[in-house]
Design a protein that fits this description.
Layout (H helix, E strand, L loop, with lengths): L24 H8 L14 H12 L2 H4 L2 H8 L3 H25 L6 H6 L4 H38 L5 H4 L10 H16 L1 H26 L15 H12 L19 H31 L1 H4 L5 H10 L2 H35 L18 H17 L6 H25 L14 H15 L3 H25 L7 E4 L4 E4 L1
Antiparallel strand pairs: 1-2
Helix pairs in contact: 2-10, 2-12, 2-15, 4-11, 5-11, 5-12, 5-17, 5-18, 7-9, 7-15, 7-16, 7-17, 7-19, 9-15, 9-16, 10-12, 10-15, 14-15, 15-16, 17-18, 17-19
């Protein structure tokens, strides 16, 4: 089978239980091109580029903008909040690493669920990923706009008028910089993955350097007294802070969306995931400790552009803050780029399975990228970025992401039982305790989002279930008259 030729369909009868339609890892790999060129995509990303891609997807608004929100919840104990969020991510990262090495395809959590828990669950996971990636990109673009103004102020003393830098909910008319960064990312993505990977790598190296420089400056003004009282809001504050801090880690799962464009994916995907989580956790804890140690939790909590504020006050000059603002502009732009990439690849996988319109799976023969898919995503993400602050749905995004990660942990257990012979380049340590603990930590942080978020999430899932029942169920490519799908044999059989 040639790399660009779609794999044969594996039909199933719509009269059978659609939730039991399970797409075998072998079929997923065959349709994606396996370890060869995947579905018209080029394998151009090496390990270094993949790690930079992961850092690019993670480090951005969560630390440059969202740190102050976490500090407001937990006070100096925000360091524990970051650690608690990291522990949740580490257990889940183990599961992503095993599944990403065993099933290196573009669909990430969606494909993992399809191979283990069935089509209905897979669709709902994909539905949650639409929320995770969509709100993440839009919220990140809004944060980028804030730091663009901070940078302009540092360099020229001039800022964009509020009418053009804020949405109606924040006193403006349209957030023009937020639209610009989304469209810039889309333009780069449609040119090709090689160009996108190079740009992401350069931006990732730069923003890591900026954060290290921030720590070096902040720790020169470190005072022990600023850490006392350490946990003024108790464990409840730490948990609430962790639920907010978790938003800072969203994006590491995007590494697995590159499964069809990575060289030696079975080896590189697990390694990249684990390196990214370890590196990002160290950076986050150091930045949080340095910021609070320099000025105190009260001075940092609920302050926009908190890192620039810290550097300005420590150095007594706006130059340092301008450098941090420049780093934030680069960092947040790289998040938009990486997360939009992940979203387009998940949509491509869902379209390949027939669960959403086919326009999302079309790959340009010239650029080897899903061009129409990318521009649709860009327009859809740019609209809320232009007109909304999105604060009201950040918790909804967090709970949806945590639910998806819980499913991934369950998927590891299910795949071990269903396909014990499947080639795995990485295995989660302390199995089955590790994925079980991953589920437990996800549920614990979900609890910290509050009951109103749970209600919103239930409504969101109900809408997704209706979309699946009304559109995707009958259009699945596992459906064809006269044949049904045998989940045990993973082969079609005549009715």
């Amino acid at each position: 089978m040639s790399p660009t030729t779609p794999a044969p369909r594996r039909p199933a009868s719509p009269s059978r239980s659609t939730g039991a339609r399970i797409k075998s890892p072998e079929l997923l790999l065959a349709e994606s091109g396996g370890d060869l060129e995947g579905h018209g995509l080029r394998r151009t990303m090496g390990l270094f580029q993949l790690v930079c891609f992961g850092v690019g997807a993670i480090v951005g608004t969560g630390i440059f903008v969202g740190l102050s929100d976490s500090v407001a919840e937990a006070g100096p104990a925000v360091v524990l909040s970051f650690v608690l969020a990291a522990i949740t991510c580490i257990f889940t990262a183990f599961s992503f690493a095993e599944l990403g090495g065993a099933i290196p395809v573009s669909g990430s959590s969606y494909s993992f669920a399809y191979a283990t828990l069935g089509e209905r669950i897979a669709f709902l996971v994909g539905w949650c990923l639409l929320l995770e990636y969509g709100v993440s990109v839009s919220a990140v673009a809004v944060g980028w706009s804030q730091y663009v103004n901070e940078l302009l102020d540092s360099l020229t003393g001039w800022t964009l008028p509020e009418a053009l830098s804020s949405g109606p909910g924040d006193g403006g008319v349209i957030n023009l910089p937020a639209v610009v960064v989304v469209m810039m990312a889309a333009t780069l993505l449609v040119r090709g993955i090689r160009e996108s990977a190079r740009a992401t790598a350069a931006m990732a190296v730069l923003k890591i350097g900026i954060l290290i420089a921030f720590c070096a400056i902040a720790f020169t003004a470190f005072e022990d007294g600023h850490l006392s009282p350490f946990a003024s809001h108790g464990m409840a504050g730490v948990t609430a802070g962790a639920s907010v801090a978790f938003f800072s880690y969203i994006g590491f799962d995007a590494i697995t969306t590159a499964g069809e464009e990575v060289k030696n994916p079975r080896r590189n995907i697990p390694i990249a995931i684990l390196i990214c989580i370890g590196l990002v956790t160290l950076l986050y804890c150091a930045v949080a400790l340095g910021a609070i140690g320099a000025l105190g939790a009260d001075a940092v909590g609920d302050k926009p552009a908190a890192l620039s504020l810290v550097v300005d006050q420590v150095t007594g000059s706006s130059v340092g803050g301008g450098i941090i603002a420049f780093g934030a502009v680069v960092a947040i732009a790289s998040v938009v780029l990486a997360v939009m990439y992940g979203q387009t690849r998940i949509l491509m996988s869902m379209s390949r399975d027939g669960l959403i319109p086919r326009v999302f799976e079309r790959v340009s023969p010239k650029t080897r990228t899903p061009v129409a898919n990318t521009w649709i995503v860009a327009v859809v993400f740019a609209v809320p970025a232009a007109f909304s602050s999105l604060d009201v749905v950040v918790n909804l995004t967090t709970i949806g992401t945590l639910a998806t990660m819980a499913v991934v942990n369950v998927a590891v257990i299910a795949l071990r039982r269903r396909n014990p012979e499947l080639k795995r380049s990485f295995r989660v340590p302390l199995y089955p305790a590790s994925p079980v603990l991953g589920v437990g930590f996800c549920l614990y942080l979900m609890y910290g989002t509050g009951w109103t978020t749970w209600v919103q999430f239930a409504v969101f899932l109900a809408v997704g279930a209706l979309v699946y029942a009304g559109y995707s169920r009958s259009r699945s490519r596992l459906v064809s008259p006269g044949e049904s799908w045998d989940p045990a044999a993973q082969e079609p059989k005549a009715e």
